[in-house]
Amino acid sequence: MKNIVVLVSGGGTNLQALIDAVERGEIKNGRISCVISSREGAFALERAAMHGIKGIVLPRRSFPDSESYSEAMLEVLKSEKADVIVYAGFMTILSKCVCDAFPYKMVNVHPALIPSFCGKGYYGLRVHEEALARGVKVTGATVHFVTDVCDGGPIILQKAVNVEKDDTPETLQRRVMEQAEWKILPEAVSLLCDDRIEIKDGRAYVI
Ligand code: GAR
Fold first, then answer.
1. The pTM of the whole model exceeds 0.70
2. CATH architecture, domain defined by 2-206
3. Between 20 and 30 A from 67 (CA), which of 25, 113, 132, 172?
């Protein structure tokens, strides 16, 4: 049974999707052993507590820079014996030391079809604002491995979602979550826990 550690910063609806998938028996070879939040008071921590999952707060603002934050995070991940690490609405970029310690063991869910609307600065509602401003007719979500290139690691799963004519960033965000993120994130985590993702020539394949 793999220890899944989930990193969060906010509301935690993707964490909830993972909790539900574990409770429904859809993730067979993993258990959520701990949730780490970069923000105090994140509602995701309450979701964890409601399901008897250990919550840890490691506030980003208590650290002067990304490097010192990443070193502290690495220590926590090691002491929690993390096997699989999931960025679920985690809004902090961790440095290379963390990525190198967990190669192909960390995944992120991004609310767009990478390589569109991704990279530094593209997170949360901003992604949907940019998609609407560009007038795309289809967007979606991507689950990919985390490497030291922001949103640049091998893509595991993607799902497309239609943009509707009268969408606002908020309605589009909700549809992308419901139709894509909450489905492909638990699916990818399940595949990872089952050792069913292979990396070849820098690309990820489901086996
Ligand atoms: C989700 O849409 C997630 O994809 C996005 O933030 C939201 C968090 O929601 N993450 C990013 O933009 C990371 N680049 P949640 O806290 O309810 O899961």
1. yes
2. 3-Layer(aba) Sandwich (3.40)
3. 113
